[in-house]
Design goal:
This protein has 70 residues and is an alpha/beta fold. It has one helix at 51-60, and strands spanning 18-20, 41-43, 65-67. 14% of the residues lie in helices and 13% in strands. It is globular, with a radius of gyration of 11 Å.
Length: 70
């Protein structure tokens, strides 16, 4: 996959439970992902995202399993 970014509108999918965007070319993460309070799994493996962005999102999604192998 070749996605370089995610739309901020993803944060409006309040009932989303799994988001797998692994093995893309993501360089940033929209902070709106932290609105996905029903999210059980977020797979960011194989991307080059900002650790700062991830830290902010992780702080809000405390019940979400976040997979982050690079």
């Amino acid at each position: 996959n070749d996605m370089t970014g995610l739309p901020a509108e993803l944060g409006q999918l309040s009932k989303l439970e799994v988001l797998d965007v692994s093995n893309n070319s993501l360089t940033g993460l929209p902070l709106e992902l932290s609105n996905l309070t029903q999210l059980k799994t977020l797979d960011l493996s194989g991307n080059d995202y900002s650790e700062y962005d991830l830290g902010l999102i992780r702080g809000k999604l405390v019940n979400t399993k976040i997979v982050v192998t690079k």
